[in-house]
Design a protein that fits this description.
The chain is α+β, with helices and mostly antiparallel strands. Helix content is about 25%, strand content about 40%. The relative contact order is 0.32.
């Protein structure tokens, strides 16, 4: 996976993908927010609120 930083958005395939991605990235120290609509389009996204501090 490419380096993620604050403000990046990850599009998820389904609820299971969204939950697995959320759990994996939060375990690494990232802060994420669930998004269900973006630019008027409904879907499943995770927005990076805080990236990993090194």
């Amino acid at each position: 996976m490419a380096e993620l930083k604050k403000g990046d958005v990850i599009r998820c395939r389904d609820k299971e993908d969204m939950l697995n991605t959320f759990l994996n990235l939060t375990a690494c120290g990232m802060e994420l927010e669930f998004c269900y609509e973006r630019n008027g389009e409904q879907g499943l996204w995770l927005e990076v609120m805080e990236d990993i501090e090194e």
